[in-house]
Amino acid sequence: MKKLAVITSGGDSPGMNAALFGVVKEAAQHEIQVYGCVNGYIGIIKEELMLLTETELSKVIDVGGTILGTQRFPEFAEKDIQIKAVDILKKHDIEGLVVIGGDGSYQGAKALSQLGFRVAAIPGTIDNDISLTDITLGFHTAVENAVDAIDKIKTSAASHKHIFGIEVMGREASDIAIWAGLATAADGIIGTSEDWNLEKVLEGLRRSSGKSQIYILAEGAISAEKFKTEIESHSEFKIHPLVLGHIQRGGKPSVTDRIMGIQFGKQSVKTLLEGRSGICLAVHANTIVELGLAEVLDSSDKRPFLPF
Predict the structure, then answer these.
(1) pLDDT in tens, 90-149
(2) Which end of the chain is more exposed for a tag (fewer CB within 10 A), N or C?
(3) Half-sphere exposure of residue 19, counting CA atoms within 13 Å on the CB side?
(4) How does DSSP classify residue 74?
(5) Check: CATH 3.40.50.1110 for 141-248?
(6) Are 187 and 154 in contact (CB under 8 A)?
(7) Strand-pair category, 49-52 with 96-101
(8) Which residue out of 12, 62, 127, 187 is catalytically annotated?
(9) What is the pTM of this model?
(10) In contact, 213 and 164? CB cutoff 8 Å
(11) End-to-end CA separation in angstroms for the chain
(12) Can you name the residues that pair with 33 across neighbouring β-strands?
C-alpha cells in the first residue's frame, strides 16, 4: 500500500484531528502517503484531496473539530454514488480508506467495503451512541464542556434560588446527560423519554422548594422548553430553560480524547495494512478492539456507559 485516504464525516467531534495525526504518523512508518478528503464523503466525489503530513497535523492535536471539514451527504446512500467514489479513489491510486464518524458514516463505510474497497472506521461522535463500544471519540470532551458550563450556571442559580432545566446533546443516547448530571450533583437527570415523569419531578421540586435546583435533560428525552412548559402549566414553579448546544462540541479536546484519537488512528492503519476490511474500532475494557461494521450496525446494544 502506497496511498490511503481519510475522511471525517457527520457531526464534528473533539479528537478528530488527533485521530488524523495518528493515521498519518503510523502511515509514515510504512512510507504511505495519506490524503484527506475535504468535507467527508462529498470530498471523494468532488476529488477534493489534500496531502496530510505528520508535521502539520502535530500542530493541531489540541484543536477541536476537524481541519478536513465535515458535511452531510445523504446522496451517498445511492449505489451509483458509492461506485463512483470507489472509482475515484482507485483513479488516484488510493488503496484504503479510514472513516472517522458516527452511525451514518459507518453506513457509508460498510457500503464501500461491500464493493470490495478496503475500509476501516473510527467511532467519532460526542453522543457516545455507537453500539458495542464503551466510549466514542469526543465524548469525554463533550462531558467536560457540559460540566464546566453547568458548574457556572449553578453559582448563579444558587444566588437567585432559580430552577434550571438544562438541555444537553444526545438525540438517541443519554450518556452526556447521565455523566454531566452525576458530576454536578444535579437534582434530576432525564436521559430518556421513559425517565420523564411529571409527577415525580413536581414531587422533587416541592421537596426542595426554596432552593436552587438543576435538572439535566437529554435532547432526545425532553427539550428544555417543553420541560418549562410542562412544569409551569402544572405548578407554581418557574423554570429557566437553557440549551447548551454546540458549546459541548467546542474547545480543546481532553487528554483522553487526544490519546484515544491517536491510538485509534494508528490502529486503523495497521488494520488496513494487515488486509482486513469492513472493520470498525471500538473500546472494550479500556482496550481497542476490532469489530465488523455489519455487526455494529445491526446491533441494538446502545446501553448508557456509566462512569463507575
Answers:
(1) 999 999 999 999 999 999 999 999 999 999 999 999 999 999 999 999 999 999 999 999
(2) C
(3) 37
(4) G
(5) no
(6) no
(7) unpaired
(8) 127
(9) 0.94
(10) yes
(11) 42
(12) 3
